[in-house]
Structures are given as C-alpha cells and as structure tokens.
Amino acid sequence: MSQLYDSIEPNVIDDEMLQKAIEEQCLEDTGKLVEKEGINFKDVTELQLSFRNILQIDNLWQFENLTKLQLENNIIEKIEALESLVHLVQLDLSFNNIEVIEGLDALVKLQDLSLYNNRISKIEHMDTLQELQIFSIGKNNLTTLEDVIYLRRFKNLGTLNLTGNPLCDDKQYTLFVVAHLPKLVYLDFKLVSDATREAAVLQYQDLTEPLEREEAQALAQLEEKQAKQKELEHHKAAFVEYLNGSFLFDSMYAEDTEAAKLAYLPGVSDLLQAYRKEFVSVCENLFNYGLKEHEKREAEVSDFYEGLHEALAANQQEGRKIILDFENRNKRRLDEIRNASSYDIAESKQVEYKEDILQLSEALMTLEILIADQLEELIEDFKRNIAVIASTFIDNVREMVTQCRDLENRHHEKLLEISIAALEKSAKNELDEDLPDDVRMFLVDKTTIVNAANASHGIRLLKIDKRESDILCNTYRWQASVTEKAFQNEIDRNRERVKEIIQYIDSLQEKLDNAEILEPME
To answer: pTM for the whole thing?
Structure first.
C-alpha cells in the first residue's frame, strides 16, 4: 500500500456504509424508520459518500435511479463501476487521487461534473457526456492550453473551472479558453465579459475559424450519416431495404466465381448488362410498392388505436358520470348514519347505502363488460383487416419475385446457348477472343461448361429465394406481433380496470363498515 495511506485506513463501499449514508440523509424520524425497516436502494435518487476514506468505487449498481452522487474528499484513484448509474445528472469526485478521466461513457445524462483537486493531466474520454453544462477540473495537473480545445464538443457547457492548473499561468490563458469555447458563460467563477469575448475572438480567429470549418464539415457528415440510417430504418420497417438499386443483383454475383469466368465468353457482357437493367427495374418496383404498403399498414394501425381510444374515452366519461352521481347522492350519507337520531334510522340508512354501493358496482362492471365486448369486436375487425393487408402484400411480393426468377431463368438459358456456341467454336478453333486459361478450362466439353453455368444459376436462385423469404417472414412476424399486442393490451387493460373497480367498491364498503352506529341512550 502507498505511503499516502500509512495514516489512513481505506474503506470499501459495502451495504453497511450505504445504509448508514442513507440514514444520515433522512430526517431524524424518517431515519429511524429506515434503520428499522430498511430501504430499497432503487428508490434512492441522491447519495452522499463524502469524507469516508473510500479507496475504490464499488457496489453502486443497485442505485439505478440515482441522479446525484457525491464522492468528494475520499482517496479514490480510479473512476469505475458507474455503468449502471445511467440517470446520473450530478457527480462530484473532487478532492481524490484520480489520475485519468475514464469510466464515464454510460453517464449520458450527466450535466454537472466535478473533478476538482485530483491528479489529472489530460482532458479526455468524455465524448458521451453531451449534456454537460458544468465542469470543474481546477487544481489538477493540466499543463497544455490546447487540451481545452477538447471541450468544444460540449455545446451546452456554460460553466468551467480550470483554476489552479499549471496552464493557468500562461498569460494568454483566459483569452485562449474564451476564444475556443465561445458559449462559455462563467470561467473560474467569473462571468465572461463581452469585452473579453471580443478580444479573444479577435486574437485567435486564425485558429478558431479552421476549427469551426472542420466541425461544420464533421457535423454535416454526421447529419448525412444519421439521415441515411433513418432512411434505412424506414426501408427495413417496410421490409424492402436495399431493393432501391442493384444491391440484390450484385449480391447474386458477389461470391459466384463461375459467373465471373463465364462473363469472359463473347456476348455474355452485353447479355449481363441487359439482365441487370431488367432485374434492377423489378427490384425498384418492389421497393416502391413496399413503401406504399408500409404507409397502408401504419395507417391501419393508427386508425385502429384512434378508434380504440375514442371508445375508451367515451366509456371512461360514462364511468366518471356514474361515480359522480353516486358521490353526489351520498355526500352526507355517512354523517347521517353516524348522527342518526335513532339506531333504526341509522341501520336503515346503512342498508340503503350498502344497496347503493352494490348498484354502483353492478353499473361499473356492466359498463366494463360493454366496453370489453366493444373492444373485442374492434380488435377482431382489426385482425381481419391486418390479415387482408398482409395477405395482399405477400401475394404481390411473390408475383414480383417470380418476375426476378423468370429473368434469371431466361438469362440462364441464353447463357447456356452462348456457352455451348463458344464450346463449338473453340473445338473448331474459330474462337477469336483471347480468353484466360481458367476460362478455357470450361471449353473442354459440354458437361463441364453446363455444370459451371448450372452451379452459377443455382447460387443466384438461392439469393432470390432468400430475399423473398426474408420479406415474407418479416411480414408474418409483423402481422402476428401487431395483433397479439392489441389483444394483450386489452387483456391487461380489462384486468386493471376490474381491479380498480373492486378496490374502489371495497374502499366504499370499508368506509361504511367503519361508520359506527351508536346505540340510542336509554
């Protein structure tokens, strides 16, 4: 162990320390309750573990809803074991012995980070902290002004503390930082003045303008990439990704070495170009059809849920009306029972109230049965409509893919004709083209060249079959999932509603049971 800890007994973060920390955060009476009954760590949103001689961060995975964590004034050497704290907004690791910024990748919601008074010599490994607004890294070992440029990626960073680092000794420190971080509002606990900002921009514009151009270019590339990814996800949702071009055709030939050799035969190149053009045209027709059908599917689902929500809203309104009527009728019923002038009157009113509760229960349950039946009919209609949409789509996809197969079969027949003609010419030494040796190996006999062409043909048909199978399987999965979700949602809703009604009726009955009927005095 380092001499640094000769006079300090390092602690570990165990359940006992965590429980004690939580108790200390609670008010005195709440603290006693926590100590007696314990607390679910998942419910804790703030945790203070300061001044506890903690050497290693550990055992915090249970605090998955933590938003604020204070670990300052310990002897921590490494930032680690924070992966589960994805909701963390504020993290204080000041006054520790940290040398490297690391282990923060999962903290994408972090807004306030303090690494003040550590041993850090480089600002790095913070790329995912795009929500960062406040960053304190004063009193560390930062020596190079250029390290500050790293912080330009944090577009929300308004408050920065670097004071106490060696780089602050540079005469141009303030102007350099302000110039390179134009959105900075506070630097080292001081408001950045307009005069300072203007002077900084003027002095360092030769350095910042190229950075701005690079960042603008990088941003444009990122946006283009994101747009393409979004477009691809849309195509996948329509089950026709990569069909808006030659991808499928190219993939059919990508691993087909026999086809590459046969392409050297005279006339095959022109044949291939014509085939490619027709094949890609069919794929693009399939692609455009798929996008239109996707819109139909989305519209059908949207219309269904809109109708479902309208039916539920009407039912809920009727339910609220029934309950409101009951409550208006029985506002003073319990007081009347308690304050009745005689036992018989109180008992009579109690019977009336009990009957009213029973009628309320029957009315609410009847209303729920009606809406359940109505929604069941809606869902059945929805299921039938989805089945028709899926079936129509599948039939048309099969028809279009059949066109692809027909094109492949015709191409194969013509390729065989060309190959056999080349074989016959080769046998008569009438083949003018200078063919590679591995191509001439096909021209030894008819069986060899036919087998090669058939093998190539089989590979391409398999690719077509696989693409068709993918589209059909995705359609079947979508059909099953969208209808099953509708049924399951209704089952869950019905169970929850029945449970709510029972709980409400039970609470009314409990209030009635607790309304003590006083025997009249003799």
So the answer is: 0.78
E strands within 163-242?
186-187, 190-191
Q: pLDDT tens digits for 386-425?
A: 999 999 999 999 999 999 999 999 999 999 999 898 888 8
Q: Are 75 and 97 in contact (CB under 8 A)?
A: yes
Domain edges within the chain: 1-104, 267-419+463-514
Among 300, 305, 286, which residue's Cα sits nearest to residue 235?
Answer: 286
Burial zone of 352 (CB within 10 Å; 0-12 exposed, 13-18 middle, 19+ buried): middle
Query: What span, in angstroms and rounded, lies between the C-alpha atoms of 238 and 232?
Result: 10
The bridge status of strand 68-70 relative to strand 46-48 is: parallel
β-pairing, 190-191 with 186-187? antiparallel
Rounded Cα distance between 393 and 295, Å, is 12
pLDDT tens sequence across 107-125: 999 999 999 999 999 999 9
Spatial contact of 200 and 179, defined as CB atoms under 8 Å apart = yes
Residues 325, 326, 331, CA angle at the centre, nearest 5°? Answer: 105
Size of the chain, expressed as the number of residues it contains: 522
H or E stretch at 249 = helix 247-254
84's tokens: 């589960």
Return contacts of 451-458, CB within 8 angstroms, 24+ apart.
Answer: 452/258, 452/261, 452/262, 452/419, 453/258, 453/262, 453/412, 453/415, 453/416, 453/419, 454/412, 455/258, 456/256, 456/258, 456/259, 456/262, 457/408, 457/412, 457/415
Q: Which amino acid is at 183?
A: K
Exposure string of 298-310, with b = 16+ CB inside 10 Å and e = fewer, is: eeebeebeeebee
The residue type found at 418 is I
List C-alpha distances in Å: 506 to 21, 204, 257, 502: 40, 74, 76, 6
Tokens matching residue 12: 């570990």
**Residue pLDDT, tens place only, 425-464:** 888 787 766 788 777 777 888 888 889 899 999 999 999 9
| DSSP secondary structure letter of residue 27 | -
- DSSP class of residue 131 equals T
Phi-psi region of 124 (alpha: psi -120 to 50; beta: other; left: phi over 0): beta
